[in-house]
Amino acid sequence: SQQGEEDPQALSIQEGENATMNCSYKTSINNLQWYRQNSGRGLVHLILIRSNEREKHSGRLRVTLDTSKKSSSLLITASRAADTASYFCATALTASKLTFGTGTRLQVTL
Amino acid sequence: DAGVIQSPRHEVTEMGQEVTLRCKPISGHDYLFWYRQTMMRGLELLIYFNNNVPIDDSGMPEDRFSAKMPNASFSTLKIQPSEPRDSAVYFCASRVDGHYEQYFGPGTRLTVT
């Protein structure tokens, strides 16, 4: 069964706008990771946030984690057409076992 | 580095046939994972290895599925006999000890008719 549920399921924005995706999970975690999947391709790791961290940045990405609410958000600033992809959160109960969410399909139009 | 390599990229087979999927992890990575992705169930972990030893196969759906890792640079996932409900994209991923992020291969799209 899936640990994470992402919201929204689909998001369509224009280039230059910010995109925010949310992830909720059910159990205690060691860390939470976000991955991107382009159509027909494998997943690519974007960013990891540990359970004792609240916010992390990487380039145009900003991730927050609220362990009391069991939720995380991924913000992509100044989106580009190349950001069009599906985005998945993955919770790590142990170092190796990742449980993936349902994903958010992001469409960035010119 | 070439990344995680999977073969074949596409496989179409008839129900009842044996299917073997192959994976070459990134050199130096200690962990190898097999996942299955479907529209209905999303991305599921099937099994993972550490230093070629299977650690957790609780995600393997049934006895028709088996996985091996004979050496650090090669793993197979076998389905025998295959069924239409096995149709999915199968991903292999690897990671290095001490780091949590996993590196995924391009996947094998399996269609069982």
Structure report:
The complex is a heterodimer of chains A (110) and B (113). By secondary structure, chain A is mainly β. Chain A is 0% helix and 56% strand. Chain A has strands spanning 5-7, 10-14, 19-24, 31-37, 43-50, 55-58, 61-66, 71-76, 85-92, 98-100, 104-109. In chain A, strand 6 (55-58) and strand 7 (61-66) form a beta hairpin. Chain A is globular. The mean pLDDT of chain A is 94. Chain B is an all-beta fold and 113 residues long. The N and C termini of chain B lie far apart (36 Å). The relative contact order of chain B is 0.34. The mean pLDDT of chain B is 96. At the A-B interface, strand 4, strand 5 and strand 10 of A face strand 5, strand 9 and strand 10 of B.
Query: In percent, how much strand structure appears in the residues of chain A?
Result: over 45%
Shape of chain B: globular
Helix percentage range of chain A: under 10%
Low-confidence stretches of chain B: none
Brief summary of the model shown:
With 110 residues, chain A is an all-beta fold. Helix content of chain A is 0%, strand content 56%. The radius of gyration of chain B is 13 Å and the shape is globular.
Features of the shown structure:
heterodimer, A: 110 residues, mainly beta, 6-stranded mixed sheet, 5-stranded antiparallel sheet, 0% helix, 56% strand, globular, B: mainly beta, 7-stranded mixed sheet, 4-stranded antiparallel sheet
Write the topology of this structure.
The complex is a heterodimer of chains A (110) and B (113).
Chain A: E1 5-7, E2 10-14, E3 19-24, E4 31-37, E5 43-50, E6 55-58, E7 61-66, E8 71-76, E9 85-92, E10 98-100, E11 104-109
Parallel strand pairs in A: 2-11
Antiparallel strand pairs in A: 1-3, 3-8, 4-5, 4-9, 6-7, 7-8, 9-10, 9-11
Chain B: E1 5-7, E2 10-13, E3 19-24, E4 31-38, E5 42-50, E6 53-56, E7 65-71, E8 74-79, E9 88-95, E10 103-104, E11 108-112
Parallel strand pairs in B: 2-11
Antiparallel strand pairs in B: 1-3, 3-8, 4-5, 4-9, 5-6, 7-8, 9-10, 9-11
